[in-house]
């Protein structure tokens, strides 16, 4: 009985150690499971945030695309208007080239430009004369200052 009792106690001890080992493994696995759940929840939240960010970007790109399409439509309309204006201007240009009114206007413009040029030439000649006169006056003042400087040097040497 004692041997059997000792053997049973040994088995009980082994089973208790095994039980504790398995309980430790169980706790570790439960802890790891909890960590994995937390990790998965975080990943899910990150994924959700990323999805929202992508959706916002898609909305912005859609708005930009609509804006670009509207802008392109406006530019097409403006281009059509400019094409019409160009045709009108070409027709007007041809009419002016054929008519004497264009030639008379050009002659009148040339005459006005010639008169302006003559006035500018006359006033520039007067300005040039004034500049030359001023330059001569400045040269006289320079010469006078040089001579005063020489006189002061001579008087300093003489004393």
TrEMBL record:
Keywords: Coiled coil. Signal peptide: none annotated. GO terms for biological process: positive regulation of cilium assembly; positive regulation of protein localization to cilium; regulation of cytokinesis. It comes from the Eukaryota. Residues 12-92 form a coiled coil. InterPro entries: ENTR1. GO terms for cellular component: centrosome; ciliary basal body; early endosome; midbody; recycling endosome. The keyword Coiled coil applies. Belongs to the ENTR1 family. This is Endosome-associated-trafficking regulator 1. It comes from Grallaria varia (variegated antpitta). The gene is Sdccag3.
């Amino acid at each position: 009985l004692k041997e059997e009792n000792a053997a049973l106690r040994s088995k009980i001890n082994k089973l208790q150690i095994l039980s504790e080992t398995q309980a430790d493994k169980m706790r570790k696995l439960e802890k790891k499971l909890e960590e994995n759940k937390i990790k998965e929840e975080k990943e899910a939240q990150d994924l959700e945030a990323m999805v929202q960010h992508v959706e916002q970007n898609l909305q912005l790109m859609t708005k930009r695309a609509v804006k670009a399409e509207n802008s392109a439509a406006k530019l097409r309309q403006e281009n059509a208007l400019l094409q019409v204006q160009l045709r009108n201007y070409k027709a007007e240009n041809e009419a002016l080239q054929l008519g004497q009114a264009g030639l008379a206007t050009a002659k009148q413009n040339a005459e006005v430009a010639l008169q302006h040029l003559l006035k500018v030439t006359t006033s520039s000649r007067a300005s040039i004369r004034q500049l030359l006169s001023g330059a001569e006056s400045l040269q006289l003042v320079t010469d006078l200052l040089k001579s005063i400087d020489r006189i002061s040097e001579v008087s300093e040497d003489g004393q």
